[in-house]
Amino acid sequence: MIKGIGIDMCRISRLEKALKDPAFLEKVFTAKEKEYALSRSGRARHFASAFAAKEAFAKAGGWGLGQVGLKNVSLERRQGAPSLRLQGNAESLMQSLEARSAYVSVTHEGDFAVAVVVLEG
User: Structural domain boundaries of the chain?
Assistant: First the structure.
């Protein structure tokens, strides 16, 4: 049973400007997200995809991103489909919604990164 669906779009050029502030990078992204994006060309698009995934997760549950916590949701990319790693408040909120799984899809084209999250119970 679907418990929620969220979508978010992030302007890559806007995030690229924000990345000039090291405090922003530390506040928003996990070590794995930074490691992945910094090891790729076009790093801003990878950070924008991760940010959009965090927002889409919060929207899927009807929560605010502040309630979820920026680092409590991490976009992980391995071979195959991307996934979300949840911890802290994100895990608690999923349990309160009686959701067992969070599915994510991300894409980027031109100056935009988009993420969709489906929560399943």
Answer: 2-120
CATH number, span 2-120? 3.90.470.20
Report the C-alpha gap between 32 and 12 in whole angstroms. Answer: 19
- Model confidence pLDDT, tens digit, residues 56-89: 999 999 999 999 999 999 999 877 789 999 999 9
Extract the tokens encoding 16: 């690229």
Per the CB < 8 A criterion, the answer to whether 90 and 4 are in contact is no
User: Which helix (H) or strand (E) segment is 95 a member of?
Assistant: helix 88-96
Rounded to the nearest 5°, which phi and psi values hold at 78?
A: -125, -175
**Predicted structure pTM score:** 0.95
Residue 94, SS3 per DSSP? helix
H-run or E-run covering 113: strand 112-120
Cα gap 66→70, rounded to integer Å = 7
